Amino acid sequence: MCVLDKKQAAHVGVLLMVLLMAACGRKPMLEVAFALPEAAEQQRVEFLAFYISNPYFILKDGQKLPAVLDDTKLWQSTTVALIKLHCLSENCGRQLVLKPPRTKAHNIQGVGFDIGVPFEQNHSNPLLAPAPLNDDAMYWVWQQGHKFLRLDLSNTASQGGVVFHIGSVGCAASSVMRAPSSECTQPNILALEFPVFDVNENKLEFQLASFGSPAVNEVLHCTGDYAGKLGCAALFSQLGMSLSEGRCDPVCNAGYLFSVVQRGIND
Predict the structure, then answer these.
(1) What is the pLDDT of residues 22-66, one digit of tens each?
(2) Residue 84 CB partners (closer than 8 Å, separation 6+)
(3) Which of 22, 96, 119, 197 is deepest in the core (most CB within 10 A)?
């Protein structure tokens, strides 16, 4: 019987690790890697993080096969992952780690997932929330739940910037310190699909360019009251999401947030 403990695994190369796992009858995990491009001149990424749920593989025959998150990673549970692209710590997730599916790898053609947190978990007791749902920087209040995506950009030469925080709104509850009993009128969960994506060759690069360069001393502020803020209408339209209903039909414009690029040698 083949056994690999953590100490042994740390001293073998990636290729050898894959070969050993194959010899032991174990398939290696599959990773959907994310990347942050170089910021434009005078643009600085202060914060960029997002929750991912409901991942799936897109097979060559068009079927969608639910994927299972590897909950041994600090940034993942069995249902939700928190990707932090502004953070360089090894404890911050920059890749979605999925258990190998019950199909041959060559049958997989693409991937899909939601940027968001399922309703039940989004409004669970924040004092008891397990990782990765215990991050205060990604939380509003119990009534609204978590920020599904948080992007904070600043202009290093001015007071300008971008503040884009998306999460559920229209959540009816007795107070901000209580959970809603039914789904929010605007869930604002971003359903994304990448029909052609090779987990071994490609990565998803966040499209900073989609958010432009705000004018000097101007802040594009889109958070919370989306319908009441001028900058939100254009963003929601580009994402393919209804500003009034908080849904995409059937999926959002994935290319507005991410581009599929080739992995580098060190990825």
Answers:
(1) 444 456 789 999 999 987 777 889 999 999 999 999 999 999 999
(2) 48, 49, 75, 92, 93, 94
(3) 96
Q: How far is CA 101 from CA 52, 59, 98, in A?
A: 18, 11, 8
Whether residue 18 has pLDDT greater than 50: no
Compute the mean pLDDT over every residue in the chain, rounded to the nearest whole number: 87
Whether 246 and 183 have beta carbons less than 8 Å apart is answered as no
d(CA 112, CA 158): 38
**Residue 43 backbone dihedrals phi, psi, to 5 degrees:** -115, 130
Reported as a single tens digit per residue, the pLDDT across 89-128 is 888 999 999 999 888 778 999 999 999 999 999 999 988 9
Backbone angles phi, psi at 106, to 5 degrees: -70, -10
All residues at 6 or more sequence positions from 176 whose CB lies less than 8 Å from its CB, including other chains = 141, 142, 143, 144
Q: What is the pLDDT of residues 230-255, one digit of tens each?
A: 789 989 999 999 999 999 989 999 99
Alpha-carbon separation of residue 178 from 144, 175, 241 (angstroms): 9, 5, 27
